[in-house]
Amino acid sequence: MPDIDNKGPWHRPPERSSSKTAFVIWLVLLFAMCFGVWKLSELFPGQLSSDLNRANLIWLLFLLAVISAGVVRTGRRNLGELTRNVAIWLGLAAVLIVGFSYRTELENVALRVRSELIPGYGLTTTPGELVLSASEDGHFYTVSEANGVRVRFLIDTGASDTVLSPADAQRLGIDVKALDYSRVYGTANGMGRGAPFTLDSLHVGPIELSNVPVSINQAEMGSSLLGMSFLKRLQSFEVQDRRLYLRWR
To answer: Where are the domains of the chain?
Structure first.
């Protein structure tokens, strides 16, 4: 009679674990990565000179270590599985290294996409030039900062002044009820009144202005306006192919 296996029909003979081999490979690859970064820093001096660049690099190395730790988790593996995991890890490492190397270009792509999806955020293509995309209604808007507070402006070449809506003025901490609405001007809806005011600072993307005279409208508005009082302080501005180019130097 054949021998009866007392361990049951589901018993499988033990397989040799490759965890020790995987751990050694993991250490070797991590060492090779760190060595490669060190040699690259020698070949390209100054690339890791800032604290931000060093922090980004440390984060990437930590992320690689965490991802690759899956290679050494305990369990029974064959050589094919181990090779596949190493290949996946190397592929991820290559993607992260390329992303880190071209981070500036990728940031520019992201900014360009954002400027198209959210026209109020401009794109600096060349030094001294800000490009804004037209919105769906054909107008140009910019999300800027007035006295450190974000304000959405409509750029209006037909307006002589830069005008804050009452709602935006209140967000800046201005008591609109205490203002003297002594300024009278014509609008598309008839005559309007505004109160003179001076902003300590106005940031339109990289454009920084100080002591900016504005008017605070007495009536409610759909959006604050950036008029010719702002545009005249620039070197030039022009519209081409649904894009507004603001140049200040």
So the answer is: 19-101, 119-247
Strands (DSSP E) along 31-98, which ranges? none
Strand runs labelled E in 156-235 = 163-164, 183-187, 190-204, 207-217, 224-226
- What does the CA dihedral 38, 44, 45, 51 come to, rounded to 10 degrees? -70
Whether 230 and 158 have beta carbons less than 8 Å apart is answered as no
Walk across the sheet containing 129-133 and list its strands: 129-133, 243-247, 236-240
Indicate the pTM of the whole model.
Answer: 0.53
Q: With contact defined as beta carbons under 8 Å apart, do 246 and 226 qualify? A: no
Q: In 3-state terms, what secondary structure has residue 249?
A: coil
Residue ranges of alpha helices (H) inside 77-165 are 79-101, 103-117
The CATH number assigned to the domain with range 119-247 reads 2.40.70.10
Q: Kindly report, residue by residue over 200-213, the tens digit of the pLDDT.
A: 999 998 899 999 99
Q: Which residues of 116-138 are buried (b: 16+ CB within 10 A; e: fewer)?
A: eeebbbbbbeeeebbbbbeeeee
